[in-house]
Amino acid sequence: MEMEELPALSELNNITTYANQTYFNISNTTGTNDTFNTGVERSWIYWLPGPFICGFGIVCNLLNLAVLSQKRLSDSPYTYLTALATSDLTLLTTSFIHLVSSEAAKTYLKAFYDVYIFYSFGNVFFNASVWLVVALTIERVLFVTHPMTFRPSKKVARLSCFLIFLLCSFINIPRFFCYKVIKYKGLYYPHGTAFRESIQFYRISWAHALIITFIPISILLITNFILIHALRKAGKERIGLHSNRDEEIRKDQTRLTRTLVAIVIVFIVCTFPSAFVEDPIAYSLFGGDRTWIDYLKSPANQMFIYISNLLVFLNSSLNFVLYCSLNRKFRQATKSLISKLHPYCRQLGNEIVSQFPSHRTHSSTMYSLQHTHTSQTNL
User: Fold this and answer.
1) What stretches of 32-75 show up as alpha helix (H) in DSSP?
2) Domain ranges in the chain?
3) How far apart are CA 61 and CA 69, in angstroms?
4) Residue 191 phi/psi, 5° resolution?
5) Contact 118, 94 (CB under 8 A)
6) Could you say which of 2, 78, 111, 204 has the lowest number of CB atoms within 10 Å?
7) Cβ distance 119 to 9 under 8 Å?
8) Distance (Å, whole) CA 202 – CA 300
9) Longest dimension (CA), the chain
10) Other CB atoms closer than 10 Å to residue 28's CB: what's the count?
11) Cα–Cα distance measured from residue 250 to residue 373, given in angstroms and rounded to the nearest whole number
């Protein structure tokens, strides 16, 4: 009888498949003792930098939430960014706990966590991050292309975020039936179920890849092209402005658009490989003549999974850096938050924030994204 263990994760959908797989076989025919085969050895490429990237991302997303909670960042786009920071923080936290406890005793609690928290709920929040980026991009495109008729709404943004989390929870229900916890020689292991290797799950995997990766990336490629065109147009139109207030408002809007373009580019680069790491998809595309088990244990598959996971972790960790680098309004809110801290922390924080590029304008007054006149918000 062959059993399969998942001490590391399996397809955190786009967050993976078998970060480290171990297989153990129970021999009933030879009369010999049970044998244990560790398969592919763990790679330092994944298990050393993984916790550091997740730890860095956790700190950055906590800072994101602290900064975005300020009133000056209460507009509709920042509502999406708050939800994105929450989703990324949850994903990185569950991944960090999984990575640092990977060598822990094979207890029931550890196996239960890997199956139902890390693998199942981790996918929910990764998928939510994907569609939150899409929703924010669509809103920005509507704002740019229809400035006289479209008004971003914080209420609509909150409803969209709620529906995204609800939808992502629904489409990940099948993952709760892919693994179960089994006991072997007094230790507990995640064990693949028959459903995980069924034709039904194979079809679900392709549908999931379509919904979570291919459709979002297609939308983002189109919308990003529109936003980049809007940035170029804004640069040309800025020459004709005569009011410092108009120029400041336009620059504020341009910075937000530029920030979103950067987020989308990093997102596409970091998440696209994850569409192909899910077991059924990877095996059907790259398995060749090998058996299911042989392919999953192959060094090439393991390395692909490691790199895909690290890219996903990195994508969820870099937003704070992008915000501070490209968005003056966010950078000012960060400095305001730091000014309320202990003097030593305030001095250290200001030194860090000052390292990001700053673009001076004629006016230091910042204006709301929603309370400006139509003629002033058109990029």
Assistant:
1) 44-47, 49-68
2) 2-377
3) 12
4) -135, 125
5) yes
6) 2
7) yes
8) 21
9) 90
10) 9
11) 11
Of 362, 328, 372, the closest CA to residue 67 belongs to 328
Task: Give the count of alpha carbons within 13 A of 316, CB side only.
Answer: 38
pTM score: 0.76
Q: Give the single-character DSSP code of 149.
A: T
Starting at the edge strand that comes first in sequence, how are the strands of the sheet with 187-192 ordered?
35-37, 22-25, 2-5, 187-192, 179-184
Query: What is residue 4's DSSP assignment?
Result: E
Q: Which residues lie below 8 Å from residue 346, measured CB to CB, with a gap of 6+? A: 338, 339, 340
Instruction: Name the nearest CA neighbour of 91 among 257, 261, 274.
Output: 274
pLDDT of residue 31: 33
DSSP at 369: S
CATH (one of 3.40.50.2300, 2.60.120.10, 2.60.40.10, 1.20.1070.10) for 2-377: 1.20.1070.10
DSSP string, 335-365: HHHHHTS-HHHHHHHHHHHTTS-----S---
Span 7-37, pLDDT tens digits: 333 444 333 333 333 332 222 333 333 333 3
Q: How far is CA 71 from CA 336, 368, 369, in A?
A: 11, 10, 12
**What does the alpha-carbon distance between residue 50 and residue 44 come to, in Å, rounded to a whole number?**
9
In this structure, how many other beta carbons lie within 10 angstroms of the beta carbon of residue 225?
12
Question: Are residues 277 and 304 in contact, defined by beta-carbon separation less than 8 angstroms?
Answer: yes
State how far the Cα of 113 lies from the Cα of 337, in Å rounded to an integer.
Answer: 35
Percent of the chain with pLDDT over 70: 72
Q: Which of 263, 230, 275 is nearest to 134 (CA)?
A: 263
pLDDT digits over 171-228, tens only?
999 989 888 888 888 888 888 888 888 888 888 888 888 888 889 989 999 988 888 8
